[in-house]
């Protein structure tokens, strides 16, 4: 049996059936657009999925800003303008007045402050878009949003 298998293999090799040549021609240009490869990369999307969506029709309320917030605003304005521009909103959250400072873009945390300027949490932003996880209910439980400052430079 071993001899017949060896003879069969030898006959196949000699006949060229096992060694047939295959030509592979990879197209260098797409006939529709002239490009070597069609672009299939999707457009980037925001990673933030729980970004509070402020009402941009809110009136600007500067009369009720605490002193620490004016200092924070001066610090923001002493740096390069952020894109999107920084904004601060006042809300009621868990029975207290809080100030929400927007993030400067993708992968950056937004910040939620109490009335004394203490950081309570980062409700959104970061790599996951869900903030630091310390106030996951901010979007659902906040009320009475008022825009108190926007960087208009």
Descriptive overview:
The chain is of the alpha+beta class and 153 residues long. It has a domain at 44-74 and 86-153. The chain has helices at residues 2-15, 67-77, 138-141, and strands spanning 87-93, 96-101, 111-113, 119-121, 143-150. A five-stranded antiparallel sheet has the order 4-3-2-1-5, with no helix packed on it. A hairpin with a 2-residue loop joins strand 1 (87-93) and strand 2 (96-101). The protein is elongated and about 80 Å long. The model has no long low-confidence stretch (mean pLDDT 78).
For the secondary structure, the number of strands is: 5
Q: What is the percentage of strand-forming residues?
A: 15-25%
Model regions low in confidence, pLDDT < 50 over at least 5 residues: none
Structural category is alpha+beta
How helical, in percent, are the residues? 10-25%
Summary of the model, kept short:
With 153 residues, the chain is α+β, with helices and mostly antiparallel strands. The chain contains 3 helices and 5 strands; from the N terminus they run H-H-E-E-E-E-H-E. The protein is elongated.
């Amino acid at each position: 049996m071993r001899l017949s298998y060896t003879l069969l293999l030898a006959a196949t090799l000699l006949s060229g059936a096992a060694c047939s040549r295959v030509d592979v021609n990879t197209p260098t240009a797409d006939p529709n657009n002239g490009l070597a490869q069609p672009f299939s990369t999707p457009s980037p999307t925001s990673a933030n999925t729980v970004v509070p969506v402020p009402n941009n029709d809110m009136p600007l309320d500067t009369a009720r800003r605490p002193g620490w917030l004016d200092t924070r605003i001066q610090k923001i304005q002493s740096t390069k303008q952020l894109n999107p521009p920084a904004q601060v909103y006042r809300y009621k959250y868990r029975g207290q007045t809080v100030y929400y400072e927007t993030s400067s873009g993708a992968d950056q945390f937004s910040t939620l402050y109490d009335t004394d300027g203490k950081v309570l949490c980062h409700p959104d932003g970061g790599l996951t878009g869900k903030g630091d996880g310390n106030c996951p209910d901010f979007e659902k439980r906040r009320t009475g949003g008022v825009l108190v400052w926007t960087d208009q430079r």
